[in-house]
Specification:
heterodimer; A: about 350 residues; mainly alpha; ABC transporter involved in vitamin B12 uptake, BtuC; 16 helices; about 70% helix; about 0% strand; globular; B: about 230 residues; alpha/beta; Rossmann fold; six-stranded mixed sheet; four-stranded antiparallel sheet; 10 helices; about 25% strand
Chain lengths: ~350, ~230
């Protein structure tokens, strides 16, 4: 992406982006008419996951906050959107609480878009509140604390039975999410991330990632930007969660646990942290792999094969190309042996 | 311009600087020399605000700044070019420079400063889109200096700008430091390279184990301090 930046002027890039999006939607339209329902479902799911991975990239890739709490924010978005949109008629049968007056009253069910946004807003609020103490932590401590947040959210979803129906989960959620919703949101997410990281905000975030003290000495207040990145990331995680709830039609607390969190982290790391295209490539790869290997797994009777291959892929990537598939070779001291191959003079 | 009065600075429980006082006048090049571990870098960090002063006061342009956080001190006109440069190696040269001007809104003036920096260090203009980590050591020091200047400082603190550089590059860097000072920026220099530092300074402090040992005009200090050899191993 940086190379493109160097060769194309601003206008060219904008034009290219518009053309790219047009081509994308054309392909999606062709796919949605030509392919079976199952394949269209997988393509849609990829769109949903892109929303999640692109937003995680903002914290993990660009700001250097290795968060493992993304699934927690997705859960918040999923439950919020599911509860807000659940049809009034079905609420009694499925023991779903009616909406309180300030959310429209017992006879109301929200349309999809505002419910989706509300899910994002709730996730963002949670991130802002939790972020203030948690973002003072660095490195591994932050990862563990964010993982703790995810565990907390799933535990709440398990135990707030009046609201979430506990471990049974909520089903018969209206399946609003289609290919257009998924990719509409994905395009918006990627665009927002791209705009943020190419603004002065983004420069501050990258500076914090490189060296927090040095960033502070440039006049940057690290906590402010870390909180900003964490909150924006959580907002889109909430959106992804909402989309997920309305594509699968059923959500359970355990759907938003370790498995999901690590899957999204793998997408970002595999594709290339801190690049725009990385998470997209990683998401496509991981999701396609899952659905290609699933039948194989079942045929062979080796359950867990998919996870095994994910793990192997991750190890190989870390060994051979630690910056990820789309990652740019780092010039920094952490880039290790890649420095020499850049042809730059060494200090 | 800067008046440090009896500060104590600790690293955790270990005291690194004790009852240190120094002052820097406007337009001066003041230098702080001393052996390894004397507390020079610690002093600069305390003035910048990345380490808190446990006791004493730091006044800048007559205003007490002891409790002001580092990121706000930048806006007041204090800049630090840290030891070992600490440039953002995975960002481009251009991005590094832009980050130096982070707190500023005056676009025109930023542009002017950028041009000035390019005349000081023409190589930076050539390498604007290159990742900072791929620069040579001397170029990285130039970038660090340029980044510091982008904040439009009134007081520029330089921590060992000659560290690890070839002698010829050191001479270049010192020429530029003189030029920076001539433009009206007050400089507080920390060095182990005493000869270079003394040559361009108008006032010198010799530090030893967390305290100022002696101070004065550089040639006087040099004369007075025959023992300097003993202390600094020169």
């Amino acid at each position: 992406m940086f190379d493109i930046r160097a060769t194309f002027s601003k206008v060219d890039r904008r034009l290219m982006a518009v053309i790219l999006i047009a081509v994308l939607f054309l392909c999606l339209w062709v796919a949605s008419t030509a392919f079976s329902k199952y394949i269209v479902f997988i393509i849609t799911l990829i769109g949903v996951y892109i929303v999640a991975s692109a937003s995680l990239n903002l914290t993990n890739g660009y700001t250097g906050l290795f968060s493992l709490g993304h699934a927690g924010f997705m859960a918040v978005g999923a439950y919020t959107s599911a509860l807000l949109t659940f049809p009034v008629k079905g609420r009694e049968i499925f023991v779903i609480p009616k909406l309180p007056m300030f959310l429209g009253g017992p006879e109301a069910a929200w349309p999809f878009l505002p419910a989706l946004v509300m899910g994002g807003v709730f996730a963002a609020i949670l991130a802002a509140v939790v972020g203030l103490p948690v973002l003072r932590l660095r490195g591994h401590y932050l990862s563990v604390a964010s993982l703790g947040l995810m565990v907390l959210v799933t535990a709440l979803a398990m135990n707030l039975r009046n609201l979430t129906r506990g471990s049974i989960g909520i089903n018969s959620i209206p399946t609003y999410t289609n290919i257009w919703w998924a990719y509409g949101c994905a395009v918006v997410t990627v665009y927002v991330v791209w705009r943020v990281v190419n603004s002065s905000f983004g420069r501050a975030m990258k500076a914090i990632r490189e060296d927090e003290i040095a960033a502070r000495v440039q006049g940057i207040n690290p906590l402010k930007y870390k909180l900003l990145a964490f909150t924006i990331g959580a907002f889109f995680a909430g959106i992804a969660g909402g989309l997920y709830a309305h594509i699968s039609g059923a959500i359970r607390p355990y759907a938003f646990s370790f498995n999901l969190t690590f899957q999204i982290v793998i997408m970002v790391v595999l594709g290339g942290q801190g690049t725009i295209s990385g998470p997209i490539v990683g998401t496509v790869l991981v999701t396609v792999l899952r659905y290609v290997l699933k039948p194989l797994e079942e045929a062979l009777g080796v359950y867990g094969l998919v996870e095994l291959i994910y793990a192997l892929l991750l190890i190989i990537t870390m060994l051979r190309k630690p910056e990820g598939i789309m990652g740019r070779k780092s010039g920094g001291p952490r880039g290790g042996r890649w420095v020499g191959s850049l042809g730059g003079k060494k200090s | 311009m800067l008046k440090v009065d009896g500060i104590d600075v600790h690293y955790g429980v270990i005291p690194a600087v004790r009852e240190l006082s120094l002052s820097v006048d406007k337009g001066q090049v003041a230098t702080l020399v001393g052996a390894n571990g004397a507390g020079k870098t610690t002093t600069l960090k305390a003035i910048m605000g990345t380490l808190p002063a446990k006791r004493g006061t730091i006044r800048y342009k007559g205003e007490e700044i002891t409790g002001v956080p580092a990121d706000r001190r930048v806006g007041m006109g204090i800049a630090l070019v840290p030891e070992g440069r600490q440039i953002f190696s995975r960002l481009t040269v251009g991005e590094n420079l832009a980050l130096g001007a982070y707190h500023r809104k005056d676009k025109e003036a930023i542009k002017k400063d950028r041009e000035w920096i390019y005349t000081l260090f023409p190589v930076l203009r050539e390498r604007i889109n290159q990742l900072a980590g791929t620069l040579s050591g001397g170029e990285q020091q130039m970038l660090a200096l340029g980044r510091g200047l982008m904040s439009h400082p009134e007081l520029l603190m330089l921590d060992e700008p000659s560290l690890g550089l070839a002698p010829i590059v050191v001479v270049d860097i010192y020429e530029v430091i003189k030029e920076i000072n001539r433009s009206g920026i007050t400089v507080l220099l920390v060095e182990q390279n005493i000869n270079m530092a003394m040559k361009i300074s108008s006032y010198a402090y010799i530090m030893e184990t967390g305290k100022i040992r002696t101070e004065g005009a550089p040639n006087e200090v040099m004369k007075r301090e025959n023992i300097m050899k003993a202390y600094l191993g020169e």
